[in-house]
Write a structure and sequence with these properties.
YbaK protein; Rossmann fold; five-stranded mixed beta sheet; globular; 26% helix; BirA Bifunctional Protein, domain 2; 563 residues; 3 domains
């Protein structure tokens, strides 16, 4: 393709709204243009990359027996009512009415549509297992779209849905899909993507993993072990608490005038914050009780974990709610409280002789022992992991790192198939409910993530499989007649051989041409210059800096084909 004919201007200036490298280069290189907040058009360069990513994904999905389908973007609200997700998803779900006043939604994901499709087609055990996938537009009314294509409202996703007769079948396919995801990301140029444990979120189910590209520009936090392969999203990450071998001492009330905060109490009593039993109150749980959470003073409550335990999103308690339990805000503990559910973090089980509130203004207890001094309570993991905590698998040191989620896989179980009454008949004619898995990759985010991982100060460094062009031809100080006998025949021959080539035919300075070539990022650059016309040689340079040199013009075709 002639560069002069490609729609999409390249610019030197970094747009003010571009805070991430990928966002800046996608705008500067003429790949995308913003239409509205979190909504973008793809220009020819951007679409070429996306189509190549699609081809990789499609090839790999077909290789594990995926069957491609295409489901609607707009779905009737009744489908989400069937699954129970309409009320659960929240304001990110865009709803509308059609001209007949019928309630509709723009699909964020297609679990309901997949079950609706499959339940009418897979009525016999002979159909199982099977996987349906699509590459389709989604819409999520994201309140905090950012980073160009990293987090958008409208996006293109590959989403796949597998259906199985038993857990063993799902487990086997889940691992096949996990292996396939590694192949996809490697082909796209980011083999360093890691599979990490994750929260099931609004998708539901019992098991989930994310594929995380570790990057300082990411908005997710991944917990990694420095000694073993443990990796988990911060939302679900666990740690191990080193036991403190102490004999419980006598409970004693001490005066702590005006000391409400953990920091103030620790300083006043000359103890570590980890020696304090911190209390956090929430308004209600799933049975409408006030909820007291007890956790070590140097830790924070992981409300995502707490939500899983109590069944609803926790809300901070009012002072009146706290007062009704017999506790005193700022000086609270489980000692003597009533009509309150108490959840204790595992960190407090490992030790004794903590500082705890006395439920009396300006007083705390020292030598608080959970087993001896607390009333009825339940133990759960509700702590947010910190840098330096101990790995739950090997006891090594945990570190927190930023990352970009480029894909995810879920074991959904029967959550959707049961509620939506999907059934099949087994060998004995009995009705059975299939179990389900879900597997997603956001294509635009994947494209942006590749740039985050593969770039220099001049532009993207595209891997061969997804580069918009394989070869970029640049001419310098050549007249039109000279181009016709020097560079143009090579361009024509490359195109005839099916090698995707962009030819910079513009009358521009060499610096402008090289800058644009960096933004386009073709793996191979061929430079035809007037100084090499007589010797019939061509300069070549790889975009990633791995090689450069000079070759004879009659060697270009074989050189490019074998590079």
């Amino acid at each position: 393709m002639l560069l002069s004919q490609i729609i999409g201007q390249r610019t030197k200036e970094v747009p003010r709204e571009a805070l991430l490298v990928s966002h800046a280069y996608l705008l500067r290189g003429g790949y995308i243009r913003q239409v509205a907040n979190g909504i973008y058009s793809l220009l020819p360069l951007g679409l070429r990359v996306i189509r190549k990513i699609e081809n990789i994904v499609r090839e790999e999905m077909n290789a594990i027996d995926g069957q491609e389908v295409l489901m609607p973007v707009v779905l009737p609200k009744e489908l989400l009512d069937e699954s129970g997700r309409y009320e659960r998803v929240g304001s990110e779900l865009m709803s509308l009415k059609d001209r007949a006043g019928h309630d509709m939604v723009l699909a964020m994901t297609h679990e309901e549509a997949a079950v609706h499709l499959a339940r009418n087609e897979a009525n016999s055990y002979r159909s199982y297992p099977f996987m349906l996938y699509q590459i389709q537009t989604k819409f999520r009314d994201e309140p905090h779209s950012r980073g160009g294509l990293i987090r958008t409202r409208e996006f293109t996703m590959k989403d796949a849905y597998s259906f199985h007769r038993d857990q063993a079948s799902l487990d086997e396919f889940y691992e096949r899909c996990a292996y396939t995801y590694n192949r996809i990301f490697s082909k796209c140029g980011i083999p360093e993507v890691k599979k990490v444990q994750s929260d099931t979120g609004m998708m539901g189910g019992g098991v989930a993993h994310e594929y995380m590209l570790l990057s300082n520009s990411g908005e997710d936090t991944t917990v990694t072990c420095n000694e073993c392969d443990y990796m988990a999203n911060l939302e679900v990450a666990r740690c191990k608490w080193a036991p403190v071998k102490q004999q419980p001492s006598v409970l004693k009330k001490v005066h702590t005038p005006g000391k409400h905060s953990i920091r103030d109490v620790a300083a006043f009593l000359n103890v570590l914050e980890s020696q304090i039993a911190k209390v956090v109150f929430y308004e209600s749980d799933s049975v409408c009780q006030p909820l007291m959470v007890l956790i070590r003073g140097d830790s924070e409550v992981n409300e995502n974990k707490l939500t899983k335990i109590i069944g609803v999103k926790p809300a901070p308690a009012s002072e009146n709610t706290i007062f009704k339990t017999g506790a005193v805000a700022g000086f609270a503990s489980p000692i003597g409280i009533h009509d309150c559910r108490v959840i204790v973090d595992e960190s407090l089980v490992a030790g004794s002789n903590f500082v705890a509130g006395a439920n009396e203004t300006d007083y705390h207890y020292i030598n608080f022992d959970l087993n001896r001094d607390a009333g009825k309570y339940e133990i759960n993991d509700i702590a947010t992991v910190k840098d330096g905590d101990l790995c739950p698998l090997c006891g090594g040191t945990l570190s927190l790192k930023r990352g970009i989620e480029v894909g995810n896989i879920f074991q959904l179980g029967t959550q959707y198939t049961d509620r939506m009454k999907m059934r099949y008949l087994d060998e004995g004619g009995n009705e059975c409910t299939p179990i389900m898995g879900c597997y997603c990759i956001g294509l635009g985010r994947l494209m942006a993530s590749v740039i985050e991982a593969r770039h220099d100060k001049f532009g993207p460094i595209w891997p061969h499989f997804i580069a918009p062009f394989s070869v970029h031809i640049i001419t310098i100080d050549l007249k039109e007649a000279e181009k016709e006998i020097f560079s143009t025949p090579i361009y024509n021959e490359l195109c005839a051989k099916g090698i995707e080539t962009v030819y910079d035919d513009r009358e521009e300075r060499a610096g402008v041409k090289f800058a644009d070539a960096d933004l386009i990022g073709a793996p191979m650059r061929l430079i035809f210059s007037g100084k090499n016309l007589d010797s019939r040689t061509v300069e070549w340079k790889s975009r990633d800096g791995s090689g450069k040199g000079t070759i004879q013009v009659d060697q270009v075709m074989s050189f490019v084909s074998n590079y």
